[in-house]
Amino acid sequence: MDTRALRNPYHDYDGTPASTQGLFDSQGKLTSEFAQRLSSKVSELLAVMENGLKSADPRDCTSYTGWAGIALLYLHLHNVYNDSTLLQRALEYVSRSLKCLTRRHDVTFLCGDAGPLAIAAAVYHRLQRVHETEECINRLLQMHQHVVTGAGGLPDEMLYGRMGYLYALVFINQQLGQDRIPLQYIQQISEAVLVSGDNLSKRLRFQNHSPLMYEWYQEQYVGAAHGLAGIYYFLMQPGFVGTEEYVHRLVKPSVDHVCRLKFPTGNYPPCIGDDRDLLVHWCHGAPGVVYMLLQAYKVFGVSQYLEDALQCGEVVWRYGLLKKGYGLCHGAAGNAYTFLALYRLTQDPKYLYRACIFADWCMNYGKHGCRTPDTPFSLFEGMAGTIYFLADLLQPMKSRFPAFEV
């Protein structure tokens, strides 16, 4: 394993009450001291972020590095703290985002126009501005046909492809109520993704290994952002694929193929055929693959999926404090969500402990000599994502990796 990580200086959880270090009680409820520390840090970093955003790219509308991502952070903070000024901030940023949409063929939640429109719909909905909410949803659904047909060589992955658009529809349903976007819209995209994966697997003569196969820029990526794990995670969500049999016949053996790519360390390669065990990020490696494994365990009940997911947790504990910094996509905050996902499923306090410890690391923002990202205050590369995680940790059972987890 290469050392893109800093050595983890913390003691691991040993199962004794003392080893929770006053972070949470036996019920898994954060102590008021630790919750207070998190909230103070959220306020402090928000002030730094607001100041830093004065020099951010005024034309970047996206959720990944632009204004929509900041709006999503404030929407989340409004969820956590229920303070109406936070909703006003979300409105300001999402309005800014809507003024500079890409208007290109970028259709995804993270890197295209679907994100700003979906986030705006959620903000307007909370402000009870019905007309604007509907308008955003209609504009979002105007892209649907383009996505289903895959016009313009649209890929299938999360950042730039069909799954990134599908997530925008799921986000609307999460925020506005389960049937706001009829399930058939989601199923049509899932079906198109299945056909696409089936075609590529046949073209590459890969069916014996994996009935589905996907690529982005001629590389068969494995991770959550551009790759197989992210795609299969969505295809295994209840009801997203209309025909249950397809999930068993096509998706499960394809998931099993990803499982076979696991390194002895428990980590996963960035691409098929790449044997370098280097990256422990949400975008490439165990911290993104874990969601696919946990979903496979929930759907198919095979204990090996859970064992592999728990192994991801060990990889992240050892190698998850990254020189790249504190962000979501490739940083300590994104990696900490691995522990929260494992905690929600297993209720094992070890994982809550580890999430709290990674939060402690993140609260010493800028003190570890990590490199500064290109967009230092953004949601997916920078400080906004860290703030999102610290606030999410206040309600561990409700936490979700933003712009990805269902």
The total count of helices amounts to 15
The beta-strand count equals 0
Beta content comes to: under 5%
Give the CA-CA distance, first to last residue.
Answer: 31 Å
Give the radius of gyration.
20 Å
Which percent bin holds the helix content? Answer: 40-55%
Oligomer: single chain
**What's the rounded overall pLDDT mean?**
96
Label the structural class: mainly alpha
Q: What string gives the helices and strands in order?
A: HHHHHHHHHHHHHHH
Quick one: overall form? globular
Which spans have pLDDT < 50 for at least 5 consecutive residues? none
The biggest sheet, with number of strands, parallel, antiparallel or mixed sense and barrel status, is: none
Would you give an account of this structure?
The protein has 15 helices and no strands. It has 406 residues and is mostly helical. Helix 13 packs parallel to helix 15.
Keywords:
406 residues, mainly alpha
What's this model, at a glance?
The chain is an all-alpha fold. It is about 55% helix and about 0% strand. α12 runs antiparallel to α13.
Blueprint (SSEs and pairs):
Blueprint: H1 32-52, H2 67-81, H3 84-98, H4 114-126, H5 130-141, H6 144-149, H7 162-176, H8 183-203, H9 228-235, H10 244-260, H11 286-300, H12 303-319, H13 332-346, H14 349-363, H15 383-392
